[in-house]
Fold these 2 entries.
Entry 1:
Amino acid sequence: MIEIKQLTKKYTDKVAVDNLTLDIHSGVVTGFLGPNGAGKSTTMRMILGLIDPTKGYVFIDKKPYCKLDNPINKIGALIDADAVNPRFSARQHLTFMATAANLSKARVEEMIFLTGLEKAGDKPIKEYSFGMRQRLGIAGALIGDPDTIILDEPFNGLDVDGIKWLRKLTMDLALRGKAVLVSSHLMGEVQEIAGRVIVLARGQLIADMDMKEMNQRSLSGYVQVKTNRAQELRRALESKGADVISNGKDDIQVRNMEIKKIGEIAFVNNIPLYELSKYQPTLEQLYTELTKGREDYSSNNTKKKREEK
Ligand SMILES: Nc1ncnc2c1ncn2[C@@H]1O[C@H](COP(=O)(O)OP(=O)(O)OP(=O)(O)O)[C@@H](O)[C@H]1O
């Protein structure tokens, strides 16, 4: 488990990470989301001791990274797929890592097999595609069979098979009790794999919750109801505290009321229902609500600026 307390990173003209306090739990994939420049990579680098915090701390198993006895066994990371010697082959790169950490050659072969790099294993890395370098980065992250795995944008560059493989791999790791932190701009992928989601914006924590909670807290979640007595039902639901939006015909959208209660109110009022369905927002919709107006680099801003000229 990772414990982050009041973690802050200030650059001369920028607070990249602002007083962040959170835990990253074992046995779950945690999606790490946020607009460009939100502070995700800076946080990940501070977890790994690659950047010193201005304030606050990160503990991995109750110790900072630099105090870990056998760090490769505690935490593994894919941060930058290009941080490798391009003249090495995957096999040489992983052997170098394994030797430094006293791991067996068999572990190198296991990782090459796991990441599907068998055919390219002896080619120089400079001949690899981005997706192949990502696979190698994942192999490096997992070689020590660490308890915690940090993957910064791991889906980038992967083909369809690679994406499916990585989905399964991250979920399997969590099932084996590992803490898996995955940053990604691909909301669909995060929705598929994550049990928990952390959202940063402008360096600050704006959400840290499990997916169920996230769905429940959503402003955009509602129950869709179809009935030939919409206005009557509307009044009955509003009198019990629901927020109701009507299209003036047979459809109404109900917020702030459980689907079961809506059905019961319709039943006691003898109002027939032709549809009663819960609309579950996608993670992308939830994320958009949470981060609205908090982006440093918004495409709408760019459009507005262009229009102002
Ligand atoms: N070495 C540095 N010096 C000055 N500012 C920096 C430095 N590194 C990062 N920043 C700034 O800190 C902020 C957070 O950057 P970071 O790379 O952590 O964001 P991110 O959430 O990973 O973004 P992205 O999704 O675009 O990768 C940005 O505004 C960035 O410009």
Entry 2:
Amino acid sequence: MTDDYLARIGSLIRDARKHRSLTQAQLAEALGTSQSAVNRIERGNQNISLEMIARIGEALDSEIVSLGYAGPMHLRVVGGRTLSGSIDVKTSKNACVALLCASLLNAGRTVLRRVARIEEVYRILEVLASIGVRARWINDGNDLEIVPPQRLDLGAMDTEAARRTRSVIMFLGPLMHLEDRFRIPYAGGCDLGTRTVQPHMNALRHFGLDLTATAGTYHAVVDRTASPTRPIVLTERGDTVTENALMAAARHEGTTVIRNASSNYMVQDLCFFLERLGVRIDGIGTTTLTVHGVGRIERDVDYAPSEDPVEAMSLLAAAVVTGSELTIRRVPVEFLEIELAVLEEMGLDHDRGQEYPADNGRTRLVDLTVRPSKLTSPIDKIHPMPFPGLNIDNVPFFAAIAATAQGSTLIHDWVYDNRAIYLTELTRLGASVQLLDPHRVLVDGPTRWRASEMMCPPALRPAVVVLLAMMAAEGTSVLRNVYVINRGYEDLAERLNSVGARIETFRDI
Ligand SMILES: CC(=O)N[C@H]1[C@@H](OP(=O)(O)OP(=O)(O)OC[C@H]2O[C@@H](n3ccc(=O)[nH]c3=O)[C@H](O)[C@@H]2O)O[C@H](CO)[C@@H](O)[C@@H]1O
Ligand SMILES: C=C(OP(=O)(O)O)C(=O)O
């Protein structure tokens, strides 16, 4: 970038900032940087990455600045390198988005600590901002402060941002306390095939929510005289449906019993948060939740969501496929126990340190050291189950791990229509992955990985699995259009580079 460019970009940023009536210090806080850095950027005296321009564009909600980062992001991976040292697990996408939605239950100020800076969070923040919620990054950009307005402007909802995530479905539970009629767009997210909303409708109907779907929009009408007359039995033990039922029950005066509830990590984080809001919940960590709701919540609350077991699994898989010794710190071990038991059977050499509590004071963490191991395929198939089964989002990582192991591994991904199919992309990097039917793949190892250039599969976990295989393959690979990875992982390339990977980000301009 020439100096002239820097000065022009700087003045565009200054204009956009002034247009938003922000001071340099406020913009700096939103970006997690210093006021002097913003000052240098605006004067054209600071080299500025495309990533930073993109973040400024997001912070200022500015077309002018976001023009500068037009193209999709790609990764160039120099593979065949071993990793070493230690790496921390970040907070989870799935708890962070649920907690952002749950902040709508609270008329007071909500602070969420160390929220992952990921695209999925940005999309929900865009939706919240569009309906009048004031959310800003504080404490050097680490934490989020969320303050709702007196009345939400639901008609102004940023439907484009909403459609890019599945998580927007979790607006239903909180919004039904605030409005008698509202609309939200169909939930989007990864291309994993059909994902039902019927269990959400069934659960929320007990609280008087009637949902009809027309042309890409859900129309919600709330009958305030309705009240659950018996325990609500979820028709699926899903995570977001349990969260919606919890958020509906949280502000429903009286006691609600939810059966066949998910007890997965994000649900537990939401329960701990609701407790801080004064909602008593019995049975946390089990499949029957008894919620003692309160009519109005107005509290200044501070909560630290826990670490992401799926990110922990991803980093563990990175160590396995690259044959590395790596310490993964802050692993929420309770949510990785079955994965570790299976890997132990396969011959994984690893150590777990002493347990210590996460910042929420409830989740148990360990530091996990993984060492290079000669793995053999497991005797039984790998398949997920709702918690406490093998985590649904962790299944794809077993494809990459199985490809490094001696023998044949059957992976049965019954949950999603399309996800197993994406695992066959690993064949382009030298793996033997045979699709037996849309839900089952047979992986034969070990693999001699080879570099390749390819598009990112349109699903988060399979995309990361491809990236890991590229890290294992000698030579230079290119993974194109990695938005889907950025949906769920904060600065993944940079963080992997900090333990020895060589991954460069680039964009088409
Ligand atoms: C924002 C968020 O938290 N997303 C997570 C959440 O999505 P979410 O809770 O939205 O997941 P879905 O409701 O789409 O469920 C995933 C799939 O599992 C099926 N299903 C689920 C439970 C069950 O008892 N029976 C059953 O058949 C559903 O029909 C669907 O096909 O849970 C998924 C499954 O853990 C994870 O992949 C997502 O990362
Ligand atoms: C499928 C996933 O997420 P989402 O529900 O956000 O699509 C995932 O995290 O792997």
